């Protein structure tokens, strides 16, 4: 199916020269409106100057968000020097629709895809129902993409365990299955305790040393709002460690309105501390959840020794 020029793989990019102590990558999400799209492109141009190994675009299943996602991911491939990874979920899609979406990406020269089962629309923690003509698991989606052409496929991993897994061992078995199906790497859900990442790496090595050799890329989000991050972890079923929550709460202050500047400062400190530990422990890359802003991630990168002087200053506080 792929007729366009083939993109480098993520694994290749991780072994290429990079500016900092390890490669970094950035996650964007599809904007809902034109104003949000302008903000995204401001961040894109800053990150383009910083030279990430790759960028990923999350995926909204169905409707205009989906169409905007495909279009913007294609524009990232065609109009920038960035290497985009397209997220693809099984939610609400038949196999024919999934094939068509993969073809749409291939037509834009995108051959790196993150294969995800996805969350139920409206309630991420709700009951999951497969499309009657779709696939049930991400492992099946990995195989489907692999059958369609010369693609490079990654998957998600969950340091604290996926909320639908029976236990951590079951979660590890699921990840091993996705890697054995052909996934070349995984990107973790964001977490706030490096030990969770290290223990996942240990479980993976014990379960299948061959698959454990594939890159396990940690997801980091520099916190800029306590209220926002608390909502995010509730929806993802992850946990903010009590010590981290206490630092953020102290910065937020006792009032109804949190001190955003103080929370942001602590959030940058926390992300930097996590990143330094992950680098010391041999993480192959740092994947930043940017929320379509560049400044917070740029500050963390600067603290890690990345030269960010080439980046255009961003006026927004996040």
Automatic annotation (TrEMBL):
Entry cofactors = FAD
Record-linked SUPFAM superfamilies: FAD-linked oxidoreductase (SSF51730)
Can you provide one Gene Ontology molecular function annotated for this UniProt record?
methylenetetrahydrofolate reductase (NADH) activity
Keyword Zinc annotated: no
Which is an annotated Pfam family here? MTHFR
Recorded metabolic or biological pathway in which this protein acts:
One-carbon metabolism; tetrahydrofolate interconversion
Q: A biological process (GO) annotation for this entry?
A: tetrahydrofolate interconversion
| Domain of life, source organism | Bacteria
> What keywords appear on the UniProt entry?
FAD, Flavoprotein, Oxidoreductase
- Keyword Flavoprotein listed? The answer is yes
Q: Which GO terms describe its cellular component?
A: cytosol
Catalysed reaction equations from the record:
(6S)-5-methyl-5,6,7,8-tetrahydrofolate + NAD(+) = (6R)-5,10-methylene-5,6,7,8-tetrahydrofolate + NADH + H(+)
**InterPro entries named in the record:** FAD-linked_oxidoreductase-like, Mehydrof_redctse-like
Gene3D superfamilies, per the entry: 3.20.20.220
Which family is this sequence assigned to? Answer: Belongs to the methylenetetrahydrofolate reductase family.
Q: What is this protein called?
A: Methylenetetrahydrofolate reductase
Gene that specifies this protein: metF
